[in-house]
Design brief:
The chain is of the alpha/beta class and 200 residues long. It contains seven helices and nine strands; from the N terminus they run βαβββαββαβαβααβα. Strand 5 and strand 6 form a beta hairpin.
Length: 200
């Protein structure tokens, strides 16, 4: 396997507040392009229908802590008393094999990976970051309400988090102001194709 820059894959990172539509965009990208979704790791229990190795790598807390000691993660965090993290091997091996990757991650995780990548010969110059910006917090509030999956308190908490996330968008390579699902997906597809051409 050759490790010339042009042979390597690209890691596309997509972030945005809950309700911004980033998961729908990621699903659409996977469907239309030869992108491989990065499976992140967590200590939370699988939800109904979730499959280990497909939705997440489900690890025990002890297993996760061992991997932290082994420096196996690019980034990890504790959310609602559960660990979440992105393992290095889940990124590096496919990138070196020329596979393009997609990672849907929060702003803190994206920032950590970008910082670590700047000192990593395998990843440096092979990351593209995209932030999905809601048109307004009012619109985001409506979207979260319409999802019908969160309580009023949870929506309020998500909106507080969204404010701080939006402040981080200036650190991304691209910011897309969300319109409709189809428009957002097409915009991201254009960026994806442009970046593939640029890297090659």
């Amino acid at each position: 396997m050759s490790n010339n820059a042009t042979d390597k894959g690209i890691l596309f990172i997509i972030s945005g507040p809950a309700g911004s539509g980033k998961t729908t965009i990621c699903d659409g990208l996977i469907e239309k392009e030869s992108l491989q979704r990065i499976v992140t790791s967590t200590t939370r229990s699988p939800r109904q229908g979730e499959i280990d190795g497909l939705d997440y790598h489900f690890l025990t807390p002890d297993n996760f802590k061992t991997k932290i000691k082994e420096d196996a993660f690019y980034e990890y965090a504790t959310v609602h008393n559960n660990y979440y993290g992105t393992q290095k091997l889940d990124i590096i091996n496919p990138i070196l094999a020329g596979q393009n990757l997609l990672l849907n991650i929060d702003v803190q995780g994206a920032k950590t990976i970008k910082e670590k990548a700047s000192a990593d010969k395998d990843l440096k110059g092979h990351i593209v970051t995209i932030f999905i910006m809601p048109p307004s917090l009012e619109e985001l509030n409506e979207r979260l309400k319409n999802r019908g999956t969160d309580s009023k308190e949870e929506i309020e908490r998500r909106l507080i988090v969204a404010r701080s996330e939006i402040e981080q968008e200036k650190h991304y390579d691209y910011t897309i102001i969300s319109q409709s699902k189809s428009v957002d997906l097409n915009t991201v597809l254009e960026i994806y194709k442009e970046e593939i051409v640029r890297m090659r």
